[in-house]
Design goal:
The complex is a heterodimer of chains A (85) and B (200).
Chain A lengths: L6 H14 L5 H13 L1 H22 L5 H10 L9
Chain B lengths: L11 H5 L3 H23 L2 H17 L10 H20 L30 H4 L2 H12 L3 H12 L4 H8 L3 H30 L1
Helix pairs in contact in B: 2-3, 2-4, 3-4, 4-8, 6-9, 7-8, 7-9, 8-9
The chains are: A mainly alpha (85), B mainly alpha (200).
Chain lengths: 85, 200
């Protein structure tokens, strides 16, 4: 578990999401990176957090509206005769 | 990242005149995205299909009320989120607002699971079993956090678009997103920790 008493870890965790989203300024970014380089636990949290998002994006890529459901949608909207552009 | 919608411009004037060809174009460009959102919100293909149909029926019946201040896709997402929440509320009586979720956030954001599963081979990370667990994990989120996560992180909307869709502030989107991500990380870390122990 992360050391909840460690102020440096707490500060980094608060900035982690903004860091992953590329929303930190250069100074904060360097601070996060310097901490991650020395704190194994925070590094694991950052890496697994990033990987978690990655897995859901992969799931999204592999999930599509089934063709029969699409046909039922077009039928219910009365759009069967309208071709996809 | 998922391909953005509205690859080709929509003729709003024609859409408001109920031009079927333009309606069809809107459906073809957005149905896959709306279905995915509903599927992850509800966890059930049949319910997702119901929300998909209801979203487009409502959109087309109320197209005059679309003012064009946001993207059309954002407007459709908004209808779909509301339809999904209505269905969830029907399932769980007594929920009156998105903020009053039955599922509450699991408290603090302090990571508990410190397991490095990033080193697992891609094949194992993307196995059918893991993919099924992603659905179980997302189902543990409150509806509010789940919607923010799907829209922002998976569908790739900007923070501003997500805020518009959910009718909340951008800072509220960031808070929900952080809670969703951290909770999902915990759930997946727990799963992969067990998995790695089994495989060892």
């Amino acid at each position: 578990m992360i050391d909840t008493n460690c102020k440096a870890c707490q500060a980094i965790l608060k900035k982690l999401n903004a860091y992953l989203d590329g929303e930190l300024d250069e100074l904060d970014c360097r601070e996060v990176e310097a901490h991650l380089a020395t704190c194994k636990n925070c590094q694991i949290v950052a890496n697994t957090l990033e990987k978690t998002i990655y897995l859901y994006r992969k799931d999204r890529e592999n999930t599509q509206l089934p063709e029969d459901a699409k046909q039922r949608l077009l039928t219910c909207l009365g759009l069967n005769d309208e071709a996809a552009d | 990242m998922i391909k953005t919608q509205e690859e080709t411009p929509i003729d709003l004037e024609a859409l408001k005149n109920h031009d079927k060809r333009v309606f069809a174009k809107v459906v073809h460009q957005n149905s896959d995205h709306i279905y995915y959102l509903a599927l992850k919100m509800l966890g059930n293909p049949q319910d997702a299909e119901d929300v998909l149909q209801e979203t487009f029926i409502k959109a087309f019946n109320n197209i005059e009320s679309f003012e064009g201040r946001s993207k059309l896709s954002t407007w459709l997402y908004r209808i779909a989120v509301n339809e999904s929440l209505m269905l969830i509320r029907k399932r769980k009586k007594n929920i009156t607002h998105i903020e009053d979720d039955i599922k509450t956030d699991k408290g603090d954001l302090i990571p508990k699971q410190i397991v490095d599963w990033c080193c697992l081979p891609e094949k194992e990370l993307l196995s059918t079993e893991t993919m099924a667990h992603l659905n179980d994990a997302i189902d543990t989120l409150s509806e509010a956090n789940r919607a923010a996560f799907i829209l922002r992180d998976v569908e790739g909307l900007s923070t501003r678009e997500t805020a518009e869709t959910l009718d909340i502030s951008e800072s509220a989107v960031k808070v929900r997103l952080m809670r969703a991500r951290m909770q999902l990380r915990e759930e997946l870390s727990r799963y992969f920790s067990d998995y790695m122990a089994r495989e060892a």
